[in-house]
Amino acid sequence: MQIQRYFTTKDSGPYAGIEFRTTSSEIRNPDGSVVFSHDSIDVPADWSQVACDVLAQKYFRKAGIPAAAKKIEENDVPSWLWRSVPDEKKLAKLPEEEQYRGENSAQEVFHRLAGTWTYWGWKGGYFDSEEDALAYYEEMTHMLGKQMCAPNSPQWFNTGLHWAYGIDGPSQGHHYVDFQSGKLVRSKSSYEHPQPHACFIQSIDDDLVNSGGIMDLWVREARLFKYGSGTGTNFSNLRGENESLSGGGKSSGVMSFLKIGDRAAGAIKSGGTTRRAAKMVILDADHPDIENFINWKVSEEQKVAALVAGSKAAEHHLNNVMKACQEDGSEDRFNPRKNNALKKAVIGARKAMLPENYIQRTIDYAKQGFTAMEFETYDTDWDSEAYLTVSGQNSNNTVRVTDEFLRAVEEGAEWKLIQRTDGEVSKTINARDLWEQIGEAAWSCADPGLQYDTTINDWHTCPNTDRIYGSNPCSEYMFLDNTACNLASLNLKAFQDEDGVFDGESFSYAVRLWTINLEIAVLMAQFPSQEIAQLSYEYRTLGLGYANIGGLLMSLGIPYDSKHARAICAAITALMTGVSYKTSAEMASLLGTFPGYEANAEPMLKVMRNHHQAAHGEAKKYEDLAVLPVPLKDSDHDEAQGLIKMARKSWDDAVALGEKHGFRNAQVSVIAPTGTIGLVMDCDTTGIEPDFALVKFKKLAGGGYFKIINRTVPVALQKLGYDETQIEQMIQYAVGHGTLEGSTAIGHEILREKGFTDEAIATLEGALGDAFDIKFVFNKWTLGVEFCTSVLGFSEEQLDDMSFDMLAELGFTSDDIAIANNFVCGAMTLEGAPGLEADHLPVFDCANPCGRDGKRFLSVESHIRMLAAAQPFISGSISKTINMANTATVEDCKDAYMLSWKLGLKANALYRDGSKLSQPLNAQLLDEDDLDEILEEKVAAQPAAVKAENIAEHVVGRYMAKRLRLPHRRKGYTQKATVGGHKVYLRTGEYEDGRVGEIFIDMHKEGAAFRSLMNNFAIAVSIALQYGVPMEEFVEAFTFTRFEPSGMVEGNDSIKMSTSILDYLFRELAVSYLGRNDLAHVKPEDLLPDSIGRGQGDEEVISDATQEVMERLTSQGYIRSSSFVGNGGNGGGVAAAPVPTMAEADAGGGLQSVEIGSVSVEAITVEATVAKAVDSQMDQMREARMKGYEGDACGECGNFTLVRNGTCLKCNTCGATSGCS
User: Fold this and answer.
1) Distance (Å, whole) CA 388 – CA 52
2) Which of 297, 512, 866, 1094 is the most buried (most CB within 10 A)?
3) Mean predicted lDDT score pLDDT of the chain
């Protein structure tokens, strides 16, 4: 093939116009520990620090590079393409530690990649002359250096290590087809034929241990994960649960094996790094186990929630038990019947459902002298032990649905689940019921996604070979089982000319060269199994795509959600795939078609004609398509119209050449997530995604960050007609001033009045430049402990408290802090920017709301319609997550899936904000903070007892919004007594757990008015109790009230005197339900049988089972004076809503728990100042969410800089990705 130069000349060499610089690279964990460090690397001068870090950490070979090398002569290869090996003689003369090193220059990496491609291209006959080969090498090198395109990660990991450095190792069980003989060969070397493919689809047979079976799949997957690739499998061949086995017995079903495979994948570090493996699990909608599969991750997330909540409750209550055992030095302190504090702690632990043996074990530890109970607690971080404990966390799950199923959903028809062994119906369910489960699961935990089987196979180029059953982990590669695809993505913004116009000509040139590149990669590659090697050789599928469409559209001043944007996206996609198929047909004319073409020529040409029709805007004239695509219509946008003309011409040529010569490749294009490689190319956006935030944090060499506006924003504003002054003001509004000088709320003069010295102010100013929130600057680490204590007067205890807010303590209000925050740190959004017209706001809409106060974000439909615009021009599919707001409903999820089908998408994955336990809710965090600030301001200056009461009122008001009614048949007790000669009957009604929920008061022979008044008073108290008002409140309010009748009390064994009827009634209730024996006149022990001379006998002990039944069926108020408290059970202290007294709050320093209805509210500690305990990790998660990140910590570097990337996650700090690109 002839290669014309476009970006270079014969004289310029590969690096025309590219300057290089030496820099350092360092990636740190949030705690400051170093993940990776390199003192001196040579990189292109225009590359960002993040791109340099990713290249150095991810793609530089860390060891094995010989300090001296020599060329191996090959007669049929030009000398400049000869491969290198270590020069052992020269190496022997060097000290051992200097003989081998790691890569330290981008030019080394570019050379080994482009050189290897050119070497194998020459051997495979892809170049007409040596001059063409050299032009190819230099053009490819240039595009790598200019960040115009990048191959998938396995190419960076593996390609060229053998050719450039002579690195080799024993075979890992790989195979390849020799391009000269066409024979399948087992690899003898691990690197001579690299593994450059990122995406694999593998089959599985319904067989346990044989080749191609279940256990064999885990081995094949491991081979892929080790080299940084991802794989997907449709498991629908496996029989369902309880289907018959050949040897008798019943199958354990698909789910049991999926859990084994999930564990195996989680144990393998993909590409040798710490990220987890990339894996896709697919199941057909008619599989007998489909319901369990749909709800798999839902139930696993519930387990995580239980682990987190249960572990923290256990830690809290067991330490309460342990603390209560230290109350005094008496022997009775370990006996809950005699130690009231221990009894309350045991009751609290039992009400939290802690196992009895753990409670007893804690007491036993205390008896042995232990003073604290260590109980490991878990959190919801996605890489935590809680998630590692459960299954289903190492794969993307997808349900395969057919048009038949979707029509059954629309019609409400029955749907049959089919057994795999005999084809019989396993179960019949309503299709809408199954659809509802899919929607609920996607809403709840963002899985499963959907793949539209009928649409996928209608666009299949090789249906005469077999159907398409599976996909890779990110759903962009869909083809035959046991095939592979290597990916590369073009950076669209790199093809804009000086005026910002997209250059279709240079883009088309790059598409042609990179199509050749991916074809060469098929020739040189080795594969993890014989089947994949054979089929990849026979069908030669490629995966060329693009990135940065969101950045391109914004720079053009075009909203992502607009018909112009969709027209440009469709035109670029059509142009790319058209040119790529045209190039494939050109290669076929020289090298022959792919071996499987002849058997599939007719259906492949039919698919080509359908692509061609869509490119020409045809609405209906398609061949054998059940769902019609969204065609490329003419546009009145000048730039779009030019691209549309080029795209249509490319498809005219592709079809004409294909009909004449056939095609070299069965597929040529996908749109991948471009995770790590997107960072290497400095893409603002990945794949087909919009941007995730307008304000970014640019990393600086040597550490630290600098806050900048998204670089496309100024370009877009200029395109929209704003002048430099206006643009400067808008950017300053978004980014902030980075200084407190000039701030009206918290300025330098105000700080001096508060005691800040000029030196302290200068220190603050130095830290404000990259601050996200000024609260993170006003702390002891910035100002120093000495200054904070001696000058500002704070105690070290305050400074060590994670919830300490220095600004609030200095007297600044929340409004002051908010105003200063916006002045210093900026709004992080353009909403409300001075001078920005409302009509221009959509240009800057992102996938999520931006900043603290941003409200705008792209709709679900805008994502789907952008996908629908591109899909008709993609051989495979598109990796894309549909972002949904937290407020989205299950119905919204189902509607999104249904719209995707009707618009011709092949796959869809939804992500509702907050659907993962690991992520705080973007929409509610600030509201919670505001509430807490209001509460803190309200109680800040009050004494501890009043603070506790205010917090209790806040919690009660927030958590008890509903009336908790009593059961229709309920227990209770009746107490008859005489107060001052007047008979009083008190009747109580209780909930099943023993809490009092109603009272009745009757007075014997009293006048109608007084009797009715008491009756209605009892009704009012009952309603209040059912709405969660603590009984303690009534006791505190009505005991010691004085009015007639009063005096001696007869008929009550504990209360002998009262100052009024109400005093008596609430003393009785306090003694019976709250354990307030301080309000009784007779001590409980005086009422026991042994107090009247029966002597000391064995304590009565009852079993747990008896105790439980007794609690449910016996009135807790009635048994308050019984002679036992079973197992430290619910006697005395059962208490409805036991809010401690103010005296207890003062003595204990805080509230232990507040229980209202069936709701248990966590402890709120009251110290000298009232503030919510803030977990440092949650603080980081909140900050990350407001910056536009997902809120999770990267599993590799620990930084909270993960963003959605197709159907995966990508770290913007170190480049780690949960996908395979």
Assistant:
1) 32
2) 866
3) 85
Angle made by CA atoms 72, 78, 82, in degrees to the nearest 5: 25
- The interaxial angle of helices 130-145 and 504-524, nearest 10 deg, is 110
CB 151 within 8 A of CB 491: no
Least confident of 100-114, 129-143, 708-722, 1179-1193: 1179-1193
Instruction: Report whether pLDDT(1203) > 80.
Output: no
Q: What is the full DSSP assignment across 528-574? A: SSHHHHHHHHHH--EEEEEE-HHHHHHHTT--SSSHHHHHHHHHHHH
Query: How does residue 596 score in pLDDT terms, banded at 50, 70 and 90?
Result: very high
Q: What is the DSSP letter of 261?
A: H
Q: Which long-range contacts (CB under 8 A, 24 or more apart) does 123-126 make?
A: 123/76, 123/77, 123/179, 124/179, 124/520, 124/523, 124/524, 124/591, 125/590, 125/591, 126/1, 126/516, 126/519, 126/520, 126/587, 126/591
More confident: 1091 or 750: 750
Could you give the percent of the chain with pLDDT greater than 90? 57
The candidate with the shortest Cα–Cα distance to 1077, out of 1058, 1056, 1054, is 1054
Joined together, the tokens standing for residue 1017 give 């008073």
Relative orientation angle of helices 890-902 and 403-411, to the nearest 10 degrees:
130
Residue of 554, 675, 494, 493 whose CA lies nearest to 1201: 675
Q: 1143 is written with which tokens?
A: 């005296």
pLDDT in tens, 351-377: 999 999 999 999 999 999 898 888 899
Distance of alpha carbon 290 from alpha carbon 699, whole angstroms? 46
Residue 1203's beta-bridge partner residues? 1210
Contact 1071, 1120 (CB under 8 A): yes
| Out of 73-82, 692-701, 809-818, 1101-1110, least confident range | 1101-1110
Q: How many CB atoms lie within 10 A of CB 280?
A: 27
Per-residue pLDDT of 1116-1158, as tens digits, reads: 666 654 433 333 333 333 333 333 333 333 333 333 333 333 3
pLDDT in the model for residue 1126: 36
Q: Letter for the amino acid at 566?
A: R
Helix (H, G, I), strand (E, B) or coil at 519: helix
Q: What's the number of CA atoms in the CB half-sphere (13 Å) around residue 749?
A: 4
Spatial contact of 622 and 551, defined as CB atoms under 8 Å apart: no
Contact criterion met (CB below 8 Å) for 289 and 253: yes
Give, rounded to a whole angstrom, the gap between the first and last alpha carbons of the chain: 29
Q: Are 199 and 544 in contact (CB under 8 A)?
A: no
Q: Between the CA of residue 194 and those of 91, 189, 539, what are the distances in Å?
A: 26, 9, 19
Annotate 96-109 with DSSP letters as a single string: GGGSEE---BHHHH
- Residues contacting 975, CB < 8 A, separation 6+: 985, 986, 987, 1051, 1052, 1068
pLDDT in tens, 44-84: 999 988 899 889 988 999 999 999 999 999 999 999 999 99
Side-chain-side CA neighbours of residue 935 (13 Å): 24
Kindly report each contact of residues 94-103 with a partner whose C-beta sits within 8 Å and lies 24 or more positions away, as own/partner.
94/67, 94/68, 98/67, 99/66, 99/67, 100/63, 100/64, 100/65, 100/66, 100/67, 101/63, 101/65, 101/67, 102/60, 102/61, 102/62, 102/63, 102/64, 102/65, 103/60, 103/61, 103/62, 103/65
Secondary structure (3-state) at 674: coil
Interatomic CA distance for residues 58 and 60, integer angstroms = 6
- Higher local confidence (pLDDT), 1149 or 1075: 1075
Q: How many CA atoms lie within 13 A of 629 on its CB side?
A: 34
With a CB cutoff of 8 Å and minimum separation 6, the contacts of 1214 are: 27, 35, 36, 53, 54, 57, 58, 1194, 1196, 1197, 1199
Q: Quick one: DSSP state of residue 1077?
A: G
**Tokens 């709840």, located at residue:** 444
Which residue, among 1183, 1121, 1099, has the nearest Cα to 772 in the 3D structure? 1183
